[in-house]
Each structure stands twice: as structure tokens, then as C-alpha cells.
Design brief:
Layout (H helix, E strand, L loop, with lengths): L6 H17 L4 E6 L2 H6 L1 H14 L6 E6 L11 E4 L3 E3 L7 H10 L24 H4 L17 H6 L4 H9 L2 H11 L11 H10 L8 E6 L8 H8 L1 H15 L3 E7 L3 H16 L15 E7 L8 H8 L23 E5 H13 L1 H5 L2 E2 L2 E2 L1 E8 L5 E6 L4 H8 L9 E6 L5 E4 L9 H6 L8 E6 L4 H15 L5 H18 L6 H16 L3 H5 L2 H20 L8 H4 L2 H5 L6 H9 L3 H9 L5 H7 L3 H4 L2 H4 L7 H9 L21 E5 L3 H12 L3 E5 L8 H4 L8 H11 L4 E4 L10 H6 L4 E4 L5 E2 L12 E3 H11 L6 E6 L3 H11 L4 E8 L10 H9 L3 E4 L1 E9 L2 E15 L5 E5 L5 E4 L2 E4 L3 E2 L35 E3 L2 H4 L4 H19 L24 H5 L10 H4 L12 H8 L29
Parallel strand pairs: 1-2, 5-6, 5-8, 6-7, 11-15, 16-17, 16-19, 17-18, 19-31, 21-29, 22-23, 22-29, 23-24
Antiparallel strand pairs: 1-3, 3-4, 9-10, 11-12, 13-14, 13-15, 20-30, 25-26, 26-27, 26-28
Helix pairs in contact: 7-14, 8-9, 8-11, 10-12, 11-14, 18-19, 18-22, 19-20, 20-22, 25-26, 25-30, 25-42, 27-30, 30-42, 31-39, 35-36
Length: 1063
């Protein structure tokens, strides 16, 4: 490479490169992202296969390969981007490469391999159309995919060193500083200090030594952040150019790139780029005969987090231990070896050529006043699309998380984002409309930092997050400041106590006080921001801290000492699922049934209709495999035992005559409460408005899911001499609350459920053929009435909608059934297995439609007019809001319409306010204390769906059980609320030997009747597992309990010496 000796030679060199490129025909190019993330995913193998295919087929004249740095979309690696056309082929295997090459040669697109949205079928044929890229403003990171980082010709071809050329021709350092100031660029390393102002101070500084330094800070210590590394790997020349311009601006002749030693690829590419720039005459003495000297040296850091602080970084460059010093004097006054030193972040310097080439005014058009330009974020965590995103400052957090990031990975809602690394803070989802800027993030209790953005969902414990970062910070504290060294240690200890259930509420005040002391009394910026993780989580998630301390619960199932076995903690009833699964594996079925029945009076019912939260938290599933089929195993056991065979433990009422308790409602909550109060010796009367007991179990859940004989058997097994049931007795009509107390009932439990369907509030909703879902299901389940006829439409996406649709398809006069839902299938709240079953039964599910008008003829429904939707912004439920699309109205012919858009609590029957004065919430539920279940009236309790709104069967059972405990304490004048204890396994069950084949076995599938057969019948669909299937499935359990239990020690007989007698 010939060394250039003048600015004009650089100009000619650029023109020659561009003219050569211009006369070349546009060659087919395969672009491979081979940054650290790409290479870790297998990019090098992809490159080797591409080269082999090109050589084997002699395609050197037809195809070019470009190996680049990271393109940003790390989630798609290894990938190939085909130019022209920008066709992105993600997550390729080496077997896929020939197919990509063949499609590219013929001008086609491989439909199977081209990028498609996660969990969707929509294909994207151009990279810029992909949602991840579409909303970005890629000014800096976009260059990565356009050039090979180890070829300086590529960089110059893309406009590289044109800014340097412009600066050298102007020969006015003051102009450079003015341009940077007018651009509004702020330091991208975290503090956000105006770059132009820093350069101005550095230029004006003169301590008589005559030497000044530029430092590029690439000490990227934030966990999960890799923006700076990727820029150095993918475009090192842009950093070198930015440093040269900075050096000219402040009068520096020497520069350092301070980069972590664990960034080998970045170091390798930077060394090559420095050598190339030197060989071309762009670095060294008398650059291009302008009289300017400038040289750059690489210094490898040892990875200490504190070396990201500028004064500690200077110490490290000088060869000393990285330790901050007091400021002032600031580095621009006294830095390396006492000389003025200007330290800028990698991304800051990458922006400089853009500003100089395009002009300050053009640059300032992007972003918002005071926060101009773009910022690169490392978007990671519980999100669909992970990678580097470059967005204009001022964009909302929600746009980054949902539009670019694609939203949550699964059903769990996004809870928060953590910005700024360990020194940053957590921002809750409720504040995602916050614009991203240095000032707004600081006001929210976080910082911009270098650009880390970790997305967290409901499976993330915020106490554990604070503990994690505090553990990191205490280990990284240099120890110079006592308050930082000991303060971070003590904060970690308190957080550790909270996660282990050992803390007290007063510890939260101490934790907050400690955090503020550390913030106010430490010397360096890292110490001053070390409290942010604690202060921000306390500010926005204090309820989680209290939940850990008071209730001994970690709702994210992260804190081991509070969670124990996740299956047990996840169960509202605290059922020891691990325990009965272990008994099944050992063939101990009777003991397994006892473990199931002891906490749950409805084991057979739950074995069929429970939403199995135990499975959603099962470690066999959360660690990458499939969860154990716990509900199927429960069904296997309960099918082998009659409910009457279990004899629960009873106690006599010890304090005088047994009190009478009235329970309104005979659903799972009411009957569970009645059963447990009966076992304690109370006299219970259950009042039921319908002709049959069971509540929603009987009137709403179809018999093909829950056979009626199963319900009757379990209810009958609970009824005894202490329980009286009165059906056809409705509250507000036949009885009143005040009347019950006059009849000498000492306590009343309201458990009427949520039996009121929400209306569509459309005209003609009252015509014949339109039914609320609950009324439709009750009519069939209780009275055998067949209301569904002809073409049936069901509005809604929950379990009630699916149940109504599947009942309708089984009724004899039905031609077809269509479910209409306003969001997508992914957002449907119904159980996944129920949606799949509806598909199998030929029920048509139409999504993204909303009814707008009911059309009636002669007093009967004839059609429904709908409008198509598209998904808009995220609402409070964490789901995207359906937005109607103008002009997409259409009509669907119907003979029957079932409305299943939700249920409300049955509060209409409660006595008039003038008499009962029971408080009702704005959601139409009864206001009751979440711990004691007491309403505002003494002696009146409420539980189940009446309080929570529509909920699951197991939650209703749990609520009834807890309410019974509170009623018993109330009747005995005892303290209602007692200290909680962690739900930890306590009983040791000997594990069975499991071979390798068993460990690799897949989840057992519960046998089901064929879809065509079951559409014509209300007989139960699912059947029980076989003995072999159940045993094998039970042996898949990871036995989390063994971490908390130990095998009982067997006392060994002592051997006495010969001749010695036992005492």
C-alpha cells in the first residue's frame, strides 16, 4: 500500500476507489455477520461452506463474500444477508448454505429459510422491512454490514476519512469544536457531558507540559452490554478517524484506545486498522505533509469495572492499579502523566465523522433538543428480538421494547427495563411512555450509562435483580472509599436476608438510608451511582420487597429459600406435587392420593380442569425441556380411588356450643370453606340460588371436560352432619345478610362467584338468538336446553368462549361455529390446550375482528357486522390494543350469537346499600381484605370470584380454604393474621434410580378421543395415563425437593469390645 503524502493524494485515492467500484457491475454479495456473537453462533463454519461452494462451482466471478462485524440483530445469528435485495436468512445451518446460494444465483428467495417473524408465518423479504430494523435510525451501526473491518479500502469507499480530509483542508480546530457544540452531541459513555464543551476545555487547558492526550474508552463493563465492542470489531476506522479529529481539535498528538483484554476480536481488528492507517500515511508524524503528528496506542485493560471511571482509567494506562482520584482537577486539566487528557467513549467518537461530514445542523435534526443524534442500546433479556438497536434520542421506551424488541417471549408480561448497567436503575412498565434521554432517565432514578437495556418480565424478581447488581458492585468496588466498600457490602447482606426470608420491614428503611449515604459520600461516579439499583427497585417495586418479608413469597419463583419446590409454591393450595409425583414413581399410589387429597377437597375435579400453575413453574420446563405432566399424574391417581375412602382429620369445637356459619354459594370456594369449617366442628349452612350445588363446576364447565358424576361424588364426600345445603335459595330474594345474623349465624361468607356475563352494548343484543355465554351454558348444563342453531358465532377469546363454542358444535341443529376475537391467537386468554381442541373439532377461529353491529330480522338475529383490527400500542394488560382498520367492515351471516367477552362478579343480589352497606369496588367486586377476607361489615367475609373477578377453579378452592381459617379464628376471637412461613419441602422421599434413556424421554401426552367422535358426544374426552406412562412421566421429575430435605439418619448399633457388657 503506497503511503499518501498530501491531502490531494487522499482525495485522488478516494476517487480512484469509487471510480473502480462504479465501473464494476453490481455483483451478487453474500454478507456474513462475523462479530463475536456471530462467530459464537457458528458464522465461521458458514463462511467456510460459502467459500467451498464458490470454489467448487467456480463462482468467483459471480459471487462475492463480505465478512463483516455485528449487524445488530444478534438473535438471528448465524445469518447471511444477500445483496442486492437485502434478503436476510437467519439462524442457518451449514446444510442451508447451498440452498441460499442457489436461490441467490437464480434471483429467487428460499421461502423456507427467509426471515419470518417469531412464532408467526409472515415472511419479510427485505431487511429494512423487518420490525426490528424498521423503527431504528441506523446511522452508526449500519456501517458494520457495509464494510469488511480489516479492509481500509472498504471504509474509504463508504465515505471513510472524508471527515478527516475536510478537517485538514479547513485547518481550523476552533471550527471543529463549534461544529461539535452545535450538533448537541453528548458523551455516550454514560454521564452525557456535552462533547464540544469538553473539547473546548481540553483545548484551552495548558499546564506547561506541551503534551495532550486523547483516550478512547472501550472499558465496557456492564453485564449484557456490547455496543462499544461491536463498533470496534465492525468499524475500527471510524473510531480512529474520530480520535484523529478530536486530537486536531484539542491539540493532542498522542492517543490511547483503552480496551478490555477479553475483547480479542476487537483488539485484532483495531491493530490491523491502525497498521493500515499508518501504512497509508494517516497516522504518525507529519500526516499528509500537514505538519500534524498523531499516533494511537492500544492499552489492554484487565477487566476491572472501576476502570470505566475516567480517573481510574488514567491510572491503569499509566501502569498503576485502577483507582479513582479526587476531582477537580479534571482529566482535561490534569490527566495522563499530569498532562491534559480528553477521554471519550467509543460511540461518541464514532459520531464525530458523521457530524463533520454531514454538518452539525443536519445531525441535530435527529433526536430532541438537548439530546440530539442516535444512541445504540444493547437490548437483551426476556424479549423476542435481542441485539444492538440504534434509535433517535427521545424515542419512547415502549417503542424500543415492543416495536423493535417484539415484546415478551411468552405469556409472561414485561415488568420493567433496567438501563445503565450495574449503576443504572429499573423502570417499571407503567412508565414505558417515558422518552429516552439523559435527563428523563435520571429523573426516573436510572441513567443512560453506555447503553445497556435489560428487559425483565414477571418471572424476574426485582429483589434478586437488586441483589445481583449489588453483589457485582461490592466485588468491583476499589475500596478507596469506606462508604462504598462497606456500604455496598451491607446493602448486599440486607438484600440477601430479604431473599432468604430473614429480613424485617424495618430493614427496608435501613437499606434506603444506606443507599442514600453511599450516593452522597462516595468519591467517584461509580460509587455515587452504586445505589441506583436499590433506590429504583425500592421506589417502584417496594411491594415485592414487602411480599418477600411479610408473606415469605417470591412471586417470580427466583429466591430459592422462599420458593422451595416451584410446583408446590405455585399451587394456590400448596399441594406437594413433587411428593405425590415421587410416590407415583415408587408405585406408592395410596400415599400419593393422601398427599393430593389432604390440602384439596376436589382432587378429581382439579385433575381435569385445573389450570396447572405447577406445570408452568416446573423446573423441567423452565430449564429448557418440557414440564412434568403433573395434572395428568394427578388424574392417574384420583381415578384409582373413590373420594369416600379418604377420612380427613376432625376436631370438636372446644369453646362451648358449635357456632353456626352461613355460606352463600355452593361453588368451589363455598363448599371448600364449608368442608374445612365442618372439620373444625362448626355448623354450616350452604345457601345455593340454583337447583343444584357446584356453582360454575356444574353450570358452566362442559361435561366432556368435567363429567357430572365426578362432581357429584366429590361434593357428596364432603357433606356430613355438620353441613346443611339449601338450594333454590337466593341472597336478596329469599335471605338477607342481616336476616342471617338475626337467625343466630355468627359469621357469613359470601361466595356467589362471577355468573354475570358482560354485554357487548350493541343495538339488537336483546333479540332472539343472542345469548350471554353463562346463560347459554347454564341452559344446557342444568336444564338440557339446546339454544344453538344453524350458523353460530361466539364473541370472545377466553375459556368461557371456547367452552360455549365446543358445547354449541355438539348440539344437533348446528351447522358451523365461528369464534370471533379482537386480538391475535397469541393473546387469547383461554388455555392453549382448549384452543387446540377447538381447532381439532373444526371450530373456525377468526382473529383481529371486532363486532360493531347486530343485524336482526323479525326479532331474530340474522347477521353480525364486524370490522378488522390491527394491533396498536400496548395496553395496561401488557397486550397490544386492537385498532379498527377503516373500510374493512364486513358482514357474517349468523343464526345464533353467544357473547363471551367476560364475566362480572355476582354482586347484584347483595342487599341494598341502605341495609347491608357492603362496599363494592369500581370493578363491581366485593371489597374484602386480601389477607383476612373480611368485608367492611363485622362478621361478613367474602372469597372467590366474587372478590377477584373471574378466576380459576384452584384459586377459588384456595380462597375458600383460607377464608375458612379466618372465620375459625374470628369465631375464637384469635388474631386473624399470623406470621407467614416459606413453603419449603419438609418430608424426605427416597428417589428412584433413573437411567439416561428416562432423562431424555419426552413429556407424556394424555390420550384423547378422536375429534370426529367427540364432536358428536358429551362423553369425557381425555382418558388416564397407563401405569407405564405414569411411572415414566413421574421419573422425569427433577426432584427439586431433595435440595431441602435429607435422608433420616439411622442409628447404628454400637459394637462393644470383647468382654465388655452393655450398661
Amino acid at each position: 500500500m503506497k503511503k499518501l503524502s498530501s491531502i490531494s493524494e487522499l482525495t485522488d485515492f478516494r476517487h480512484r476507489i469509487l471510480s473502480e467500484k462504479k465501473f464494476e457491475h453490481e455483483k451478487l454479495t453474500l454478507v456474513v455477520s462475523a462479530g463475536t456473537c456471530g462467530q459464537a453462533s457458528g458464522a465461521n463454519d458458514i463462511i467456510r461452506v460459502i467459500k467451498r461452494c464458490i470454489l467448487e462451482r467456480s463462482l468467483q466471478e459471480n459471487i462475492e463474500i463480505r465478512v463483516t462485524g455485528c449487524h445488530g440483530f444478534c438473535d438471528t445469528e448465524p445469518s447471511i444477508l444477500v445483496e442486492p435485495g437485502l434478503h436476510l436468512y437467519p439462524k442457518l445451518s451449514i446444510e442451508d448454505v447451498p440452498r441460499v446460494i442457489e436461490a441467490a444465483l437464480t434471483g429467487d428467495i428460499d421461502e423456507e429459510l427467509i426471515y419470518r417473524e417469531p412464532q408467526g408465518q409472515k415472511r419479510y423479504y427485505c431487511q429494512s422491512d423487518i420490525p426490528f430494523f424498521r423503527k431504528q435510525t441506523r446511522t452508526i451501526i449500519a456501517s458494520n454490514q457495509k464494510l469488511d473491518p480489516i479492509r481500509i479500502h472498504n471504509y474509504i469507499e463508504q465515505g471513510g476519512y472524508a471527515a478527516l480530509e475536510k478537517v485538514l483542508l479547513k485547518s481550523d480546530p476552533e471550527w471543529i469544536i463549534r461544529e461539535v457544540q452545535e450538533s448537541g452531541l453528548r458523551g455516550r459513555g454514560g454521564a452525557g457531558f456535552p462533547t464540544g464543551k469538553k473539547w473546548e476545555l481540553a483545548r484551552a487547558s495548558n499546564n506547561g507540559k506541551g503534551q495532550k492526550y486523547i483516550v478512547c474508552n472501550c472499558d465496557e463493563g456492564d453485564p449484557g452490554a456490547y455496543m462499544d465492542r461491536s463498533l470496534l470489531e465492525g468499524n475500527p476506522h471510524s473510531i480512529i478517524e474520530g480520535m484523529m479529529i478530536a486530537g486536531i481539535a484539542i491539540g493532542a498528538t498522542k492517543a490511547f484506545i483503552y480496551v478490555r483484554g477479553e475483547y480479542p476480536l476487537a483488539i485484532k481488528h483495531t491493530i490491523i486498522a491502525l497498521r493500515q492507517a499508518t501504512d497509508l500515511g494517516l497516522l504518525g508524524e507529519n500526516i499528509l505533509n500537514t505538519g500534524i503528528d498523531f499516533d494511537i496506542e492500544i492499552v489492554r485493560g484487565a477487566g476491572a469495572f472501576v476502570c470505566g471511571e475516567e480517573t481510574a482509567l488514567i491510572k491503569s494506562i499509566e501502569g498503576y492499579m485502577g483507582e479513582p482520584r479526587q476531582r477537580p482537577p479534571y482529566p482535561v486539566e490534569k490527566g495522563i502523566r499530569g498532562c491534559p487528557t480528553c477521554i471519550n467513549n467509543v460511540e461518541t467518537l464514532a459520531n464525530i465523522p458523521v457530524i463533520i461530514s454531514g454538518g452539525a445542523k443536519e445531525y441535530a435534526k435527529v433526536g430532541i433538543p438537548g439530546n440530539t443524534g442516535t444512541k445504540i442500546f444493547s437490548l437483551v433479556g426476556k424479549i423476542r428480538n435481542t441485539g444492538l438497536v440504534e434509535v433517535p434520542l427521545g424515542i419512547k421506551i415502549s417503542e424500543v421494547v415492543y416495536d423493535i424488541g417484539g415484546g415478551p417471549l411468552g405469556k409472561a408480561k414485561i415488568k420493567a427495563v433496567q438501563t445503565g448497567g450495574p449503576s443504572g436503575g429499573c423502570i417499571p412498565a407503567s412508565m414505558f411512555d417515558l422518552p429516552i434521554s439523559y435527563d428523563s432517565l435520571a429523573e426516573a432514578g436510572s441513567i443512560m450509562g453506555s447503553g445497556g437495556m435489560i428487559v425483565m418480565d414477571d418471572n424476574t424478581c426485582m429483589v434478586d435483580v437488586a441483589k445481583y447488581f449489588m453483589n457485582f458492585l461490592k466485588g468491583e468496588s476499589c475500596g478507596k472509599c469506606f462508604t462504598c466498600r462497606k456500604g455496598t457490602q451491607r446493602m448486599y447482606e440486607i438484600l440477601d436476608d430479604i431473599t432468604k426470608g430473614k429480613a424485617r420491614l424495618e430493614d427496608l428503611d435501613l437499606l434506603e438510608e444506606l443507599a442514600l449515604v453511599v450516593k452522597d459520600t462516595t468519591m467517584c461516579g461509580l460509587g455515587q451511582t452504586a445505589s441506583n439499583p436499590v433506590l429504583s427497585t425500592l421506589r417502584y417495586f417496594r411491594h415485592e420487597f414487602k411480599r418477600h418479608i411479610v408473606d415469605k413469597r417470591c412471586d417470580a419463583f427466583v429466591c430459592k429459600e422462599l420458593v422451595g419446590a416451584p410446583c408446590q409454591s405455585a399451587c394456590p393450595l400448596g399441594t406437594e406435587a413433587w411428593r405425590y409425583v415421587a410416590h407415583i414413581a415408587r408405585g406408592e399410589y395410596k400415599e400419593a392420593y393422601r398427599v393430593i387429597r389432604e390440602p384439596n377437597p376436589f382432587p378429581s375435579i382439579c385433575a381435569r380442569v385445573c389450570d396447572h400453575p405447577c406445570e408452568s413453574k416446573c423446573r423441567a420446563g423452565t430449564t429448557g425441556g418440557e414440564p412434568v405432566a403433573i395434572r395428568s399424574l394427578k388424574r392417574f391417581i384420583t381415578d384409582r380411588f373413590d373420594p369416600s375412602t379418604y377420612t380427613p382429620k376432625r376436631t370438636e369445637w372446644s369453646d362451648g356450643e358449635p357456632p353456626s356459619v352461613a355460606i352463600i354459594g355452593s361453588g368451589p370456594a363455598g363448599l371448600t370453606a364449608a368442608h374445612h369449617l365442618s372439620l373444625k366442628g362448626c355448623k354450616v349452612t350452604v345457601f345455593e340460588a340454583e337447583a343444584e350445588t357446584g356453582g360454575m363446576l356444574t353450570c358452566a364447565i362442559p361435561s366432556y371436560r368435567l363429567p357430572r358424576d365426578i362432581i357429584r361424588n366429590e361434593i357428596d364426600s364432603l357433606l356430613d352432619e355438620n353441613i346443611t345445603v339449601k338450594c333454590n335459595t337466593a341472597l336478596g330474594k329469599d335471605i338477607t345478610i342481616k336476616g342471617l345474623f338475626k337467625d343466630n349465624y355468627k359469621a357469613v361468607l359470601l361466595a356467589m362467584g362471577a355468573h354475570k356475563s358482560r354485554p357487548l352494548k350493541l343495538e339488537n343484543e336483546d333479540v332472539e338468538g343472542v345469548y350471554p355465554s353463562i346463560e347459554f351454558l347454564k341452559a344446557f348444563n342444568l336444564r338440557g336446553e339446546l339454544h344453538a342453531k344453524g350458523k353460530v358465532g361466539v364473541i370472545g377469546g377466553g375459556n368461557s368462549a371456547i367452552d360455549a363454542a365446543r358445547v354449541a358444535i355438539r348440539q344437533r341443529d348446528v351447522e358451523s361455529v365461528t369464534i370471533l376475537y379482537r386480538r391475535t391467537r397469541d393473546e387469547m386468554p383461554a388455555f392453549v390446550e382448549e384452543i387446540e381442541a377447538a381447532d381439532q373439532e373444526d371450530i373456525n377461529i377468526q382473529t383481529l375482528v371486532t363486532p360493531v353491529k347486530i343485524i336482526a330480522e323479525n326479532g331474530h338475529i340474522s347477521a353480525i357486522e364486524c370490522i378488522k383490527n390491527e394491533l396498536g400500542d400496548v395496553d395496561s394488560s401488557g397486550r397490544r390494543r386492537p385498532v379498527p382498520i377503516e373500510g374493512t367492515e364486513h358482514t357474517i351471516q349468523l343464526d345464533t350469537l353467544i357473547v363471551a367477552i367476560g364475566e362480572d362478579s355476582s354482586t347484584d343480589c347483595i342487599d341494598p346499600v341502605s341495609e347491608s352497606e357492603i362496599e363494592i369496588t369500581k370493578w363491581g367486586t366485593v371489597q374484602a381484605d386480601s389477607k383476612t377476607f373480611l368485608t367492611n361489615l363485622p362478621g361478613v367475609f367474602a372469597a372467590g370470584d366474587l372478590v377477584t373477578g373471574p378466576n380459576t377453579v384452584v384459586e377459588a378452592i384456595a380462597a375458600g380454604k383460607k377464608a375458612a381459617v379466618m372465620i375459625e379464628r374470628f369465631l375464637k376471637n384469635e388474631e386473624l393474621v399470623r406470621p407467614a412461613e416459606p413453603c419449603i419441602p419438609k418430608v424426605y422421599i427416597e428417589p428412584v434410580a433413573v437411567d439416561d434413556e428416562m432423562q431424555k424421554a419426552g413429556r407424556a401426552r394424555t390420550p384423547q378421543a378422536p375429534a370426529e367422535w367427540r364432536k358428536r358426544s358429551f362423553a369425557e374426552i381425555e382418558v388416564s395415563l397407563s401405569v407405564d406412562e405414569a411411572t415414566r412421566e413421574a421419573m422425569r421429575c427433577l426432584r427439586c425437593d431433595l435440595e431441602f430435605t435429607k435422608k433420616p439418619e439411622v442409628e447404628e448399633k454400637k459394637t462393644l469390645p470383647i468382654g465388655e457388657k452393655m450398661a
